[in-house]
Amino acid sequence: MAALIALLIAGLGGAALLKGGLHVSQHEGDMLHLADIVLRLAAGDRLHREVTTPLGGLAFAPIVLFVKAGAGLGMAVLWAQLLAAVALAPALWWIGRSRLSPPLAGLLAVLVLVHVLALVHGEAEAALSISMHYNRWAWALTFVAAVAALVPPRAGRGHADGVIVGLAVAGLALIKVTYVLAFAPPVVLALWLTGQRRALAVAVATGLALVAGLTPWLGIGHWTGYVADLAAVAASEARPQPGLPLRDIVTAPLYLGGSLAALAVVVALRRAGVTTGGLLVLLFLPGFVYVTYQNYGNDPQWLPLLGLLVLAYLPQAADGEAASGLSHRAVLGGLAAILFAMAAPSVVNLAISPIRHLTTPAEEYTPVFPRSARHDDLLGVTERLARALAMRPLEIEAPGYPTEPVEPATFAGEVLPECALSGGMVATFAAIARDLEAAGQGGRPLFAADVLMPLWLFGDVGRLPGAAAWHYGGLPGYAAAELVLIPLCPVVPERRAEIVASIAARGTDELTELRRTPLYLLYAKDVTTR
């Protein structure tokens, strides 16, 4: 088991590192979102104070650690993933050794480490992306906590198991609260119902001790700011969900097979005499659906975990036949095979992504930040970075096809054009930053009316204290801004409309137009009105 874990870490982690930089072929917006937060934290800004985000510090801390140590941003991400895998190795070894057969322990190690070390978010598209790395890390912790809670150890243990579960759940809270809301309650119930009550007590104590240990370092303001950021996102209408409606996560053609297989597992376990296991799987299903619903791409990455749990419960299945005439073990084995088959496209994509990264043609990539010698190890596909594309409505007459008139966004009496940036985000941001420098507006804190626009990464544009790296609602950081920039072709026009409406409601008397270009309108904000 230990040798397999070491081999997986060396193989997957080493393949990623050998490229000498991080090559990204999609999700440039998420890439810039990550770069913005990491480099602001590395420069001394504090999470949930100067940096507004609903994500927890553990989603960024390992990357920030390597940036502070002198690494470029691209290599810092790769080293951080390797560090996360090494940190999880002892827990993987212990949980596998104490609960599972060697083949299942090896399968758990593969699933967890593939999620940690992958260079794509999931799904089946052959791409390279660091987007939503925190979701992968959180799934890895969920796998560890779920197996520890649902499958009791072969011998009486408590302290090590409790520490592992406590740290895993605390890690989820420090990465993305969605996972805690979904899985902490069933983990607690699972530990109780499987007789692991000492482990439950140790897990709770471990989590509380971790919070107590971090508070003197982070300060009470970190936790209150975290809660405030979460509350702001929860109250926002800007992102009700990042993908399909909830009902489709259960019943759409892509998901219905998994939903039916999961319910069949519950029934089959209970009929096979594994009543506690069936109940616990049922308790986890709402969390599986909820996290899938909340995550971009709606990738049901719980499918292989459920398949592993079914195989772990096989030895407990009673002799005898199910209503189908097959043995209970055959039914459960068949359901596990179905779950693994449905999970295969995503898992295989995750697993081979470091190899894909190693073999991708370097000549097709360009540094995202060419003006930074240190961070030129973060690269994107040249065509995607450089070619700016816009979507605009065509003014045509179409008799017989009634359409609802669209109310254009306005700001300070100006009708803003209907336009959405559909490609070349990096080149567009770099062009705006250079234009601001040339106009003598460099170095001043700037608020941009879009879902994201980290212009400070591309030139001498002031970082905005309290700004949100990704806009979910409100005007975070606006009070500290000296400049207000209205993009004429934003990434997300709906967010621009919402932001300019919020500014207008606040009042625009303090704003004076400074500059207008084909890309943006720029206003100075009267700082004496703060």
From TrEMBL:
The chain crosses the membrane at residues 76-96, 102-122, 134-151, 163-192, 199-220, 276-296, 330-352. Keywords: Membrane, Transmembrane, Transmembrane helix. This is DUF2029 domain-containing protein. Coiled coil: none annotated. It comes from Oceanicola granulosus (strain ATCC BAA-861 / DSM 15982 / KCTC 12143 / HTCC2516).
